[in-house]
Fold:
Amino acid sequence: MTEIVPNIYWVGGVDWSLRNFHGYQTEEGSSYNAYLIIDEKITLIDTVKDHLFEEMMERITEIVDPSKIDYIISAHSEMDHSGAIPKLLAVAKNAKLIASPNGVKGLKKHFHNITDIEECHEGMVLNTGKYNLKFYLQQMIHWPDNMAVYLEEEKILFSNDAFGQHIASGFRWDDEYPHSMLFHQLAKYYANIVLPYGAKVENFIKRAIEPNEIKYICPAHGIMFRKYIDDLLSEYTKWMTNTLDPKKAVIVYDSMWKSTENMASQLERGLDNVGVRVEIRSLSYCHISNVMTDILDASLIIIGTPTLNNDYMPTVSSFLTYMKGLKPEGRVGFAFGSHGWSGEGVKNVDKVLRTLKDWEFPLDAKQVNYVPTESDLKSMYECGQTLGRYILEK
Ligand code: FEO
Structure:
């Protein structure tokens, strides 16, 4: 366990070997952060995945007899946080389970034998003795039921999925963990989990953070914040307002016989020539969740594909489905690639990109037949220059 302040503890579980979180590549593992508050009434905020129940119980037992827990606050019914609730209720037999209105519905749908759950609402305060816990609903960050809990006396915000990062570590605090790695995983989490809900995040920050003094932000995953809260909020503000880097482009592609790859290289040279920084990501090697991290603040998104079986490559299909669901807005887009005979791949990528909100297309999609000629490659270089100048001058 880790003491946050006297009487308040991190008692979660660390998922060291987790490498896939519903399709998100978690190269650093993750943690499920449960928090124990010792007061006249003993309270646990969230639990852990079912398989880490024993680990959480060992941590709780170092502090208090778990059967003495009075309140279990389920801030989110997704099973990475709620999975151990049934086993915990079997031990903490007198505990009252508390959740948001949507949390009550969600928990009942997950755990069909749990029926006695108390609803809490926005702004409601739970008094545990000397502490007051105030609830803030966080609808769609990132399920309909999420909520945050603010402990007024110690100025701790238990922020649930907001401000989380998938990191497994024995270090629990932002000033103990490598800063750039922490903020990279924070960005990856935002890009892959929170991105569609920028307006909800903004609203949450206005309600729960701006009016309150915050000394600690304790999310439901990864590292807790006590030193770099300003940096954390500044990064979230950038992302939730869709503030993009005007000099950043991402080229995402797959290739069968290197024609599309060679076109990608020339696009990159053209962009580089006018001063745009480019990340090139081959979908044969790069995981889509890492590509989304690149895309988070990029102004220009370029997608390349050959045509395979009258459509784009399956890797490109997977990426497009994923990106479309995460709804990046307001980008400049461009589709390109090589084809043999029918050429639907590039056309279909272009169609998908044009469904995204507030995207611009200064150039029509471009494709070549089989292997690009010197003239084709020169044309791609020039496309890179044109697209680059476009985003720099926007
Ligand atoms: Fe960490 Fe939405 O669960």
User: Anything to note?
Assistant: The longest helix spans residues 374-393. The chain has two domains: 2-240, 248-393.
